[in-house]
Target: Alkyl hydroperoxide reductase AhpD
Amino acid sequence: MSLDALAAALPEYAEDIRRNLRSVLGDSPLTEQQAWGAALACAVASRDPRVLAEIADEASGRLSAEAVTAAKAAASIMAMSNVYYRAKHLIGDDAYAAMPARLAMRVTARPGVDKLDFELWALAVSAIGGCGACLETHEKRLRAAGVPAEAAHEALRIAAVVHAVAVTLGAERVLS
Model:
């Protein structure tokens, strides 16, 4: 299994997605850990078994065991956070904004990898989760720590493409 197998599985109408997949993961200005951690976290968030299996297989050869665990943790914690904070935001009542989350999120303090890499992965997963509050928070933390906007942009590109691959292959399984 490999990234090439994922690209080959995409139908002809998704040629742009195939090219983008090779581009965002084959020529990323991010470090290998940042790019592949984002890809793995986004594959988990995209919920497609084949995409997850292929990207996890490729990522396991590029990431330490700690980074693999941290990428999965980023997807897991953001699955909860994206729902919670998106809902609070969409309700739009300041009473909810003042209420504490009271949800355990200890992994964000000690993710097992560089905290900025974890923030980058949380940002990418939040793009898939559609949580504006989480996107804003993680982007501001990255920028405050000196991470350039271009790095956040690359993580968003990875999220967009990994999610598009998952949507396309999932649709093909159902429609074929």
Q: What stands out?
A: The mean pLDDT is 96. The domain at 3-175 is CATH 1.20.1290.10 (AhpD-like). DSSP finds nine helices and no strands in the chain.
